[in-house]
Amino acid sequence: MPSMMDNGNSNSAPANPTNDRIMLNVGGTLFETTVSTLESGGSDSLLASLANRPSHESEPVFIDRDPEIFAVLLSLLRSNRLPSTARRFSKQELNDEALYYGIESRLRSAMSPAQLSGIDASIVATIRPAAEGISSAFTAIDDGSVWIAHGGQVSVYDWNLSHAGTFRTHLDNIISICRAWPEVAAIGSDSEAGLHFYDFSGGRHIDSLHWTDPSDPRIYKAEVTAIANSPTLVFASFACSHRENCILVIDNSTLQIATELGRQSGSSAKNMAPGKLTWMPETGMLIGSAVMCGAFGYSGYIRIWDPRSGIVVWETNEPGSGRSSRFGDPLADVDVDIEESVLSKICSKSGDLAMADLRKLGDDPWVYVTEKNPSMRNTSSGGGNSVVHCYRSQVFVGREGSLEVWSRVEDGKDGELERVYRRNFVDKVKDSERGLIRKIEGGGDRLFVSRDDVEGIEVWESSYFSGAISVL
């Protein structure tokens, strides 16, 4: 009978004469290792429980699993990294076995991408749902997983980009999605009014909420335009065909409407329903923004609410009251850096990037970031068709089909924001030709990118994980 022996001189578990050796029989192959090696998988793991079996049981424990994958996982426990032989197995095969042994967290740590650096990022995968592959909306999760809406379906891909399941909704086209709970999605559609909650684990419809007002007949069949959440609340902006809109604050434990924010009426840009919502954990404030592109160019607003009092604590309209010194160059898109408490916007005419410190807001809080390297200056005709996303103290900008990043650099000088950011192109020329970038969102140490009329969601990671693959 073949065997694989551990000499005890591992990196993660140094030799210790007080540690007893232990023998395991996995699928007919004998493995000899140490108790400390098995216990390094965690106190709740199956391997730790086997290591602590009564000492009088001398016969090897038989485990009816794949011995070759077990050899990979045992090497992971010894050295805290995967051996080269792991390449012979798919991520799903490794994950399934790690789940069985209760050491998924160790495998996840070893397989997770490096810290996301926009300068070194490249495409490592394109996730393509099996049916209706063009994404209508998606949301990235903190562990690097992603929930993708395509048509009226939602497909979930876990931390290692394996397909965890797909559920069909009663909606025709989902345009906004947010993970309200670990296995519950809050969904908005342009085909049906209301905010809808679905349980991914059971693929079932939990509830639907609607904006109603018996005293106002204009409040009728309001559709959701944006969703955000906090640990206890869900925020959803609703818009009616009669130009009425508001934000509903929903208690996520009861799915009951707690209050209504920012009700407004009219067809002007400063009265539109928010197209983006972001909740700020540090202050508890809700930030909303809306952008309109019409015959006279771009216009829009940024507004900050205190959900506890329901009041607006700060706002700017572009163009309109509270104009910046760059009147006539309004925002094309805006996003919030939660970690740094910074707003970032792209100007629609010049294409310039501007930032504002949320802790020092005033009538004109914007600092316009400049690139001093002539070869890296913005050569685009403007900021139209641009999107911006702030993540991990970096600002990612999609201009048409190209992707760039503004990263913080330490130059040893005390100065304005423009002195501590440097611009670089993330993509190559062939990447920029894939199509117009529609949305950018970060999750874990990954960046997810969708493009107009292009199937699938691109996954970007730090460069040493590069090498394009397709996840079907």
From TrEMBL:
Residues 22-106 form the Potassium channel tetramerisation-type BTB domain. Residues 1-21 are annotated as: Disordered. Gene3D superfamilies: Potassium Channel Kv1.1, Chain A. Residues 1-19 have a biased composition (Polar residues). InterPro entries: BACURD1-3 (IPR045068), Beta_prop_At2g24240 (IPR057441), SKP1/BTB/POZ_sf (IPR011333), T1-type_BTB (IPR003131), WD40_repeat_dom_sf (IPR036322). Residues 131-461 form the At2g24240-like C-terminal beta-propeller domain. It holds the Pfam family BTB_2. Pathway: Protein modification; protein ubiquitination. One of its GO terms (biological process) is protein homooligomerization. This is BTB/POZ domain-containing protein. It comes from Tripterygium wilfordii (Thunder God vine).
